[in-house]
Amino acid sequence: MIDSASQNQQRSRLWSLLGDLPGADAPVTAEVIGEEDFPSYTLQKLVLELNGIEPVPAYFCRSKSARGPAPAVVYNHAHGGDAVTGKDEAIAHRPALQNPPYAEALAPLGIHTFAIDAWNFGERRGRAESALFKEMLWNGQVLWGMMVFDTVRATDYLVSRDDVDPERIASMGLSMGSTMAWWHAALDERVKVCVDLCCLTDFHALIEAGGLDYHGIYYYVPRLLKEGWDTASINALIAPRAHLSLAGLYDGLTPVKGLDKVDSALRQVYADAGAPENWKLLRYPCGHMETAAMRRAVLDWLAAKL
């Protein structure tokens, strides 16, 4: 069985590595600045106050098939060297992803989609990523920590909505969005379902494969390995909640040796937690991309678990 007290202690340890974060006691506020109608959902364009430093643009895609408070997916966008797309990935096509975009795919299932622009993406872009990382580091902050903080605070807003069921929240994404999904789920127990595509990267296997530069500078958290963390130990904090991971066998960002290591560790964690059915790693003969088979697996998982 899972020792909840021990997990919470581990979460506190992990948070402590994410730099000097803004206060989490200030109220989260949201302003609706526009709405747009789509066939299966209504798009609300929002500006959120989450961190006391800069506003955070966001989308809430309200499913027209939802009845009463409905489940919602926190959709975490990718990096891909593209600072422009940001949260638009949830509603518009991206080459590494299948069509239709996830907001459109989820809405007929009665699932809302929620997405924010991460630091330096979408409507928050305009700075060099390396310069932002360096400035934050000088000020005791960690870029990844600030990104995770915004995601968790945005979830505060999401669960406050009367059209959202706070007991049915998922977090998902591809690439950088995948990494955000499993960090988010590890640190925030309100996330009941995690779906990560193409970025369950074992840190030590990445070093061994010489692949550190496959990931952007945002990805690196000071002292993470020194303090004894690895990918499996972070993801173990999600158990026994539902977690689906999808990987490409030809993806240099996720060495196969590392996938084997994480899968073996999490199979044991979930078995010990009495929920072996809640962990699944699926592998496909492809690179850093979502295939049609992956899309089918994601939608089936969300329909079953959320």
Strand content: 15-25%
Numbering strands along the chain, what is their spatial order in the largest sheet? 1-2-3-5-4-6-7-8-9
Tell me the major beta sheet. 9 strands, mixed
Large-scale geometry? globular
**How many β-strand runs?**
9
Spans of at least 5 consecutive residues whose pLDDT stays below 50 are none
Helix run count: 9
Q: What string gives the helices and strands in order?
A: HEEEEHEHHEHEHHEHEH
What radius of gyration results from the CA coordinates?
18 Å
Q: Kindly, what is the distance between the CA atoms of the first and last residues, rounded to a whole number of angstroms?
A: 22 Å
Mean pLDDT comes to 97
Q: What is the share of helical residues?
A: 25-40%
Assembly category: single chain
Structural class: alpha/beta
What does this structure look like?
- The longest helix is centred in the middle third of the chain and has 18 residues, at 143-160.
- The protein has 306 residues and is of the alpha/beta class.
- It is built from nine helices and nine strands.
- The protein has helices spanning 4-16, 102-106, 129-138, 143-160, 176-187, 203-208, 231-235, 256-272, 292-305, and strands spanning 29-37, 41-49, 56-63, 70-76, 112-116, 164-174, 191-197, 242-248, 279-284.
- Strands 1-2-3-5-4-6-7-8-9 form a nine-stranded mixed beta sheet, with helices on both faces.
- 33% of the residues lie in helices and 23% in strands.
- α8 (256-272) links the parallel β8 (242-248) and β9.
- α4 packs across α5.
- The two termini are 22 Å apart.
Features:
306 residues; 23% strand
